[in-house]
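Re: that chain you flagged

S.,

Sorry for the slow reply, it's been a week of failed gels. I finally had a moment to sit down with the sequence you sent. For the record, here it is as I used it:
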Amino acid sequence: MNMKRILLTAGFAAMVLTGCSQMTVLRTQEMKAVGAEVQTSLDSAVQSLSAQNDSLRAELDSTKAMLDASALAQKRMQAEITMLSRRVSDESERNDSRQEEIIYRLDMLLGKSDKILAKKVVVSGAPAPVSMDSLEREAEKLVEAEAMFNTARSDYHRGEFKLAYNGFKQVYEQMKEGELAENSLYWMALCLIDVNQVDKAKKVFARMSDAFPDGQKTCPALFKLSSLYGEECDIDMQKQYLQKILSTKSCEKSAEFEQAAEMLQEILEKEDKKAAGEPVDACVPVVRESKMPSARVKPAEGSASEPTASTTAESTEASL
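Prediction finished late last night. Pasting the structure tokens below so you have them in one place:
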């Protein structure tokens, strides 16, 4: 009896063990299948992410190439715009110079006609007739002076400042008064500035404004004086000439009047800040360099050498 139980127990145990073994095998197979499925999903996901990554890299590379091309195109456009701007500026300056020259010649011709007509009226109404020969000589003198003035202006724009100075000086000494004389003095001072003889230029500007207080070039001359003293950090003299512009009636409608008002206001504000102890930028004198002419005219053998700007300035100051 006991033996049967033992055998039954052993058989049952063997059946149980066999069943457990089969279940373990099944579980293992299921786990392997699940693992394989998970691995397949992971591989698929990795491949998909890798493909997306490659696509993104390609798009980024394409975008970068487009940005680089756009930046290069923008630089080229900026360079072209800069070149065009310079060309427009140069052309504008040339046109302004031509227009100024044409306007000046028209003014001179109109002024010459008015003077000749006025003198004819005086001759017809005067008790003692004046010879027409004198009128013709004076008209010829005016035309000759105008031609010399225009030649001197051309020399100035070519950079021949000493040659231009001598031409303007000759016009002034021939005319002594009137618009041509005033304009000649003004351009003589500009020539002196360009050859770095600022002190003589300031004297010519100052005496010109005194000799022609209501002239066309008085306001520009006064403004030039204020600018020259400002470059030298002589603020007191700069303010003096700015105030002179503002107190000159003939300058009220000029561009120099507005500029002088703005500059004087800036100077006074700066002085107020300095008096209040606030920091202000220190004035730094401007160092000028003489402009070299584009081409020099070689004097002929045996002829007098070309006078320097220094000697001609002294003779002009004496004649004033």
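What I noticed first: Confidence is low (pLDDT under 50) at residues 120-128, 294-320.

Talk soon,
D.
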